User: What shape does this take?
Amino acid sequence: MQGLTDEFKYSLVAGAVTGGGLTVIANAPNPAGYSILKGNFEHEEISPLGLFAAAAIPTLVAIAAFRAI
Assistant: This one.
């Protein structure tokens, strides 16, 4: 990629990895993701708030790891 600094490339990849926990919502409808996750939710319905809560801690860990590097 011409014209992009190494810092920008790193930030782009770090953001994509860190935000990956919420892709079922961001890329809705995602039938494969929905079929994998629905059994883990009450009434087999994915709650955006429940998904956010489940992804919050791993996302914060990923953010902390990337900031530490």
In short: The first helix runs from residue 6 to 18.
